[in-house]
């Protein structure tokens, strides 16, 4: 009874006071000078706060790197709150600095991990006349549970296979992802930029695949936050061991830092050799037409050792010579 009476009084109070609060808020929105003062005050505060936090974070990251104890950071409550505030902007259109919803591409922790991974990979890269920062291209095969890392060395005209990593687990079975919650990993041609790096993911590290792409949107497919990530469970499409994910993250990060505009991810249900496709054609599976379309892109790379330029026309993938290779 007491709770009901208290709740009723609270709701009545909110009802009485809400018109005044709304009017005050509307008035403040019309006062450009007041908005500018508010924005200026907010702009000064995070710079000081970030400086102090960065000093502490850098010190912790260096300490962890030296001891080998690079544990996953808990997903901070502040980051979750920031994403909830995505629509908040200054009346002039400027974003409030510490409410910028774009996920960070780097953290002291991820940079420390990348530094260790690059040092670990350096001898192997040098044996193949490669280095961290060379362009990277990825191919993933569901059936074989393999992820290929291809790289193009300085002065080279083709990509060469650097390393093959075992996929610990991939979500679903052969076939594309078509809707949110169908427990399927995507198939097709995707790409990512520096903003695709996910240093804060709960899966150790992650790289967003860019699903849905233009093809998926055309066909009405839905889904979000699909990644290549660390761990043993493919909660977000494809899972690698922690060390393999660190290697991959470091190479992709280095390539993007050195000027590679985007990283291409070609994802196939299986190795689309002619003999394997003959088996598929004889069985006439549901996704046969889609897979025949994917094989065109598979064959392009097999023949020229360059990732194809990909466009979507009439609900199908079309493959072109990349502009940079014209």
Describe the structure.
The chain is of the alpha+beta class and about 325 residues long. It is built from eight helices and twelve strands. The strands form three sheets. A five-stranded mixed β-sheet has the order 3-2-1-10-5, sandwiched between helices. Strands 4-9-8-7-6 form a five-stranded mixed β-sheet, with helices on one face. Strands 11-12 form a two-stranded antiparallel ribbon. α2 crosses α4 and α4 crosses α6. The radius of gyration is 25 Å and the shape is globular.
Descriptive tags:
about 325 residues; alpha+beta; L,D-transpeptidase catalytic domain-like; 5-stranded mixed beta sheet; 8 helices; about 45% helix; about 15% strand; globular
The average pLDDT is 80
Sheet having the most strands: 5 strands, mixed
Helix and strand run: HHHHEEEEEEEHEEHEHHEE
β-strand number: 12
CATH topology group of the domain at 130-325: L,D-transpeptidase catalytic domain-like
- Identify the CATH homologous superfamily of the domain at 130-325: L,D-transpeptidase catalytic domain-like
Number of helices: 8
Strand % is 15-25%
